[in-house]
Design brief:
This protein has 73 residues and is of the alpha+beta class. It is 44% helix and 14% strand. It has one domain. This is Serine-threonine/tyrosine-protein kinase catalytic domain-containing protein.
Length: 73
């Protein structure tokens, strides 16, 4: 999923404001520091996309449960 995320995500979401050097993002109960590279934002978007794809599997038994979805997000 991570290799193709740039094909399905609006490029504006991956860009940082040039005046902003460090921003905080909460993920899994921890504050993560993000620099201008956008690495953390990219990883969060990958996690969200993977969760969405897991929820949309064809067979209901293969889909992620809602409790697990909430825990991941």
């Amino acid at each position: 999923v991570s290799l193709a995320i740039s094909d399905v995500i609006d490029g504006h979401l991956l860009k940082q404001n040039n005046s902003e050097t460090v921003s905080d993002h909460a993920a899994e109960g921890h504050l993560l520091k993000q620099n201008n590279s956008g690495t953390v934002l990219y990883e969060l978007l990958v996690m969200i996309m993977e969760t969405g794809l897991s929820c949309s599997r064809k067979a209901p038994t293969e889909r992620m449960g809602m409790k697990e979805v909430v825990a991941r997000l």
